[in-house]
Specification:
Length: 552
């Protein structure tokens, strides 16, 4: 790719004039160009839905773009009240004087009005301050509108969870479809500007790198290589990232003011010292640039049914729900499928019991959805009979991605595995299916976490055989009895069947925790006469022995 280009597209400044909500001049030609590019992308990207990210990055072609609509709630409020744009404006959490300010525009900021203040305090500083509320449903509607426009320019658009107005666009495999990255960036920013929103755009090679850049720069930033992105992102101001004010003040006192300085901090102890948010952000900095997931517009269909009398039998409830489910699914449009079924049961004693099932993949088959509901109801405890229920379907557009060229020769069926996991979730609950993930922790029991998952990761076999030492950890360390002097044959750690301890290796000392609770453990590997290899430790503070796990 050519030398990196940094452009400054004409974006709307805070406090400046807002674009009119009606169609701007020459908007028709721009929309035709965007729609044409979107059709070409959808037709040409189907065979390369699983494009290799590493290969694209190796060729110098960026793999991700991050679009940020800063202060989405404030922009939404100004679209609703365009006459306020020239003066100080703020978004408040509720319509009362004691409500806190959530977002302020540039005019209010320059008059020392800050987010977090009470509305009454802001008025005391600036009597002309205009304020309004923006409901969460309005933000979701705006995010859906923005995502729909971006979907015309990339086949895979992924909104950032918990932060409306931030989207990732996948660029893998689009080298021949986009003759000019600069022109594509202008189309992205222009498409959002036509909807009345100003935005920033960063094109690069990693999720965090593009996100941090989009939150910091104004306009568009293109990275020409992974090294350039790493160098620039390391020098970005840490204050632009979503950190708690207390954490940001702590970092400033320590002299940590850039992203690179924060990323260089040791991961161990971040949670205890700075909290979960700072630890999650630090861990996210280490992740690579995975392709964005396919965005699907979600809608909901709902119906409410009143039973003839209190009913607690699962078979009878399934019979009632079958009629409701078939009626809702029969009203779906062409190409729409169900991604989740939520049911709220209203019991005879006044309680409300929510339950939900998710199929392995969005579907319109009533039989499959009803089977999941039956499994969920059979294990659901009811304190009284059900007199009424409300059913809500989450509806998305069905995907058209190509699964595989040689499905008959595949040795494993990922779809069948996903269906099995969906049945387990329906039968045992959402938290029943998960995987262990490694986490930075001081003690062994804190170095892994059970995280819910919805599918299996693709196998990545290693060409060279690797010997793996597997440790089976106890959920809670098991207290052991100390060796008695009356035992002539040795210490029976695992009972009579395993025999006494014949060999011991250690100690391996773990100490610390002085900032919360002191920990000092002496770990040993012991081998019993039967051949069991156990992992035990002596807690010096509690003066007791514990079984941490075993080794296979």
């Amino acid at each position: 790719m050519a030398a990196p280009v940094q452009t400054s597209l004409p974006l709307l400044q805070e406090g400046g004039a807002r674009p009119a909500p009606h169609r701007p001049r020459f908007a028709g030609n721009h929309e035709k160009r965007v729609a044409g590019l979107g059709r070409a992308l959808r037709e040409a990207m189907a065979p390369v839905a699983g494009a290799d990210v590493a290969g694209a990055a190796a060729e110098g072609w960026p793999v991700l773009a991050c679009v940020t609509v800063p202060s989405l709630a404030l922009q939404r409020l100004l679209l609703r009240e365009p006459s306020w744009a020239a003066g100080p404006v703020a978004v408040v959490e509720a319509d009362r004087p004691s409500a806190r300010l959530l977002e302020v525009n540039g005019v209010a900021w320059r008059q020392r009005v800050r987010p977090g203040m009470r509305y009454a305090a802001g008025l005391s500083l600036l009597g002309s301050l205009q304020a309004g509320t923006v409901e969460p449903s309005e933000l979701r509607e705006a995010a859906q509108l923005l995502a729909a426009r971006l979907a015309l320019l990339s086949p895979r658009v992924e909104p950032k969870a918990g932060e409306p107005g931030v989207f990732w666009l996948d660029l893998t495999g689009m080298q021949r479809l986009i003759p000019s990255l600069e022109g594509w960036c202008e189309s992205v920013v222009g498409a959002l500007k036509e909807a009345g929103y100003r935005s920033t755009l960063a094109v690069g090679f990693s999720r965090f790198g593009t996100y941090a850049t989009a939150r910091t720069v104004r306009g568009v930033r293109l990275y020409g290589s992974v090294a350039e992105e790493h160098r620039v992102v390391s020098g970005l101001a840490l204050e632009r990232l979503p950190l708690e004010p207390a954490v940001r003040e702590t970092m400033e006192r320590l002299g940590v003011v850039t992203v690179g300085q924060f990323a260089a901090l040791p991961a161990a102890g971040l949670r205890q010292r700075l909290g979960e948010g700072a630890e999650a952000l630090h861990r996210w900095m280490q992740e690579g640039g995975n392709p964005a997931e396919a965005w699907q517009e979600a809608r909901s269909w709902e119906a409410e049914e009143e039973l003839e009398g209190p009913e607690s039998r699962s078979e009878a409830l399934v019979f009632w729900m079958k009629r409701t489910l078939e009626g809702l699914v029969g009203g779906l449009r062409t190409g729409e499928v169900v991604s989740q079924v939520s049911v709220e049961l209203r019991l005879d004693d006044g309680l409300r019991c929510p339950l939900a099932v998710r199929p392995a993949e969005p579907t319109a088959e009533c039989g499959l959805l009803l089977d999941l509901l039956r499994l969920r109801l059979e294990g659901y405890p009811l304190t009284a009979g059900v007199v009424r229920y409300r059913m809500v379907l989450q509806v998305v557009r069905s995907g058209s991605e190509q699964r595989t060229l040689w499905s008959a020769s595949a040795r494993r069926d990922p779809a069948a595995a996903a269906r099995a996991l969906a049945r387990l979730r329906a039968d045992l609950g959402e938290g029943a299916v998960g995987r262990l993930e490694q986490r930075p922790g001081h003690l062994p029991e804190a170095q892994s976490l059970f995280v819910p998952c919805s599918g299996f990761r693709a196998a990545q076999p290693c060409r060279k055989p690797v010997r793996v030492l597997v440790r089976h950890l106890q959920e809670r360390a098991i207290p052991l009895e100390s060796r008695q002097r009356s035992e002539p044959d040795g210490w029976l750690v695992a009972g009579l069947a395993a025999g006494p301890v014949d060999e011991r290796s250690g100690p391996f000392v773990i100490s610390g925790g002085w900032w919360a609770r002191e920990v000092r453990r002496d770990y040993y590997f012991v081998k019993t006469r039967r051949g069991d290899l156990l992992w035990i430790y002596h807690d010096r503070v509690r003066r007791k022995w514990f079984l941490q796990g075993g080794v296979a």
